[in-house]
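Lest this sound abstract, we let one protein speak, letters for residues, whole numbers for local backbone shapes, and leave readers to judge:
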Amino acid sequence: MRNELRIDINMVKPRPQRTQTKARPSASASDMDIEHHINALHKVTETLTAHSAQMEKVLQAILDTRTSLEGNIDTVVAEVNTLQIEHRKLAERVATAETILNTAQPDIADMKLRLQLQESEILRLHKRADKAEGRSRRNNVRFLGFPEKIELPNAEAFLEHWLRENIFTKDRPPLLIVERAHRVPGGPPRPGAPPRPLIARLLNYRDRDQVLKNFRTSGPIDTENAKITAYLDYTAEVQCKRATFNTAKQILRDKNYSYSLMYPAKLRVVDDERSHIFPTSEDAWTWIHAKGLADPTAEAQIQKECLTSQSRRKKRSKLRTESGPTKSQVMAEQAQVLKVANRFSCIQPQSNQDTNNSDSDSVSSQHIAAHHGTNVYSTLSR
């Protein structure tokens, strides 16, 4: 589209000349004005022509922009439609998820309740199992200080002879029998490390009491340049509970208080002919602070030593655990034992050779049984 301004010069008629002779001088001025206007019109025409070309370019650019915008709008509309479809699908999925959650909430609440019941049942069974293991250790005595391999080749005969020569020197029992005796599993100690404890199971509980009483009254016994001591053999859980009273016992010893540690882990303190029994170490500490027995400096030092001792015990326990059987082996043995137990409705008792006592540091009964080549439940067969 082009609009051109065309001016015909012939259409511009000159003014009629006046006949008067006096008007001749002004006729030439009129011609000059006309020529001036014609030149101005020519300039306007050229300017309008140039502007017309520019307007044509602007209009063409507007048309191109409109075409591009129409294409972009179509693309945006298509994307918006796609987003609407996706949004609709997501809304449906959210509604489905809400329905599933609303349906699952009662089941989750029921499972939580069942889990709590199972945890309480597992805790109860764990206590019963620990109690049964503790009962199986009632006649066990843990001897500390015997040099390595001194008991070979027959640990039972060695201990029977040693007890007669060092403990029962005056009133010898008519029949002193050591049913089983063995070192704590874990392999020979490293050079410079203390020897492993020697665990012995006595047939008669009176002999056990006599041995422990002798060590309490007389103290350690020298044998082969070593000081021998003896203690009861407790389970790992009982040992951990009793170890929490170590700091309190040391303070009571320093203050000359009479105390005793009752089974499984209760501290009994005698003060002014009155007995105080503390089921937990926190109760004991409350009483000690109330009596003003604790020295802050000494208490901090004792706590530091206890933490160091506990870290060493954990490190030794970790080393023993790493040298023991793998988890898959233990689980395989447990599955086999349970399979046999389900078949016969009970676990058959093992022979005396398979009734090795478990480690009082209690790596685990499975670890000890696997170390000795015995059944994982050999300790329960006693």
